[in-house]
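Q: What would this chain look like folded?
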Amino acid sequence: MAIYIVLSKLTDAGSKTLKKKPSRIKEVNEELEKMGVKVLKQYIVFGEYDFVNIVEAEDNLTVMKAMVELASRGTVRTVTMPAIDVDEFIREMSK
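A: My prediction, written as structure tokens:
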């Protein structure tokens, strides 16, 4: 399984939804899991983004499909980055 960092920014519609129903965050996480993307860690942050999520999925296509699905709802925009464990990187570079 691969790890990804997902930076999320709520749209105005997403902010309204979150204000009315904060538990929506957990519901979206459950929906993502059904799409093959497991949320390992999730943080609410200040600044340019509203959330930093560490997720796990089988491959890039699985994550991309899930992020397109979320974006199509009009409540969030994301930036997704694949993440490689430092120890794994060192092993591969040492070969």
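DSSP finds four helices and four strands in the chain.
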